Amino acid sequence: MKNWDTLEADLDLILDRHFTGGRNGCKIDKVILHHNGGNLSGEGCYQVWQTREASAHYQVDANGGVTQLVWDSDTAWHAGNYQANCTSIGIEHADISTNPWQIGDATLDNGAHLTAAVCKFYGLGRPQYGKNVFFHKDFSPTECPASIAGSQRDAYMRRAQEWYDKMTGNKPAAPAKPAAKPSTPAKKSTETVAREVIAGQWGNGDDRMNRLRKAGYDAAAVQNRVNALLGASTPSPNVDLNALADAVIRGDYGNGAERQRRLGSNYAAVQAIVNRRMGW
Question: How many CB atoms lie within 10 A of CB 81?
Answer without folding.
Answer: 21
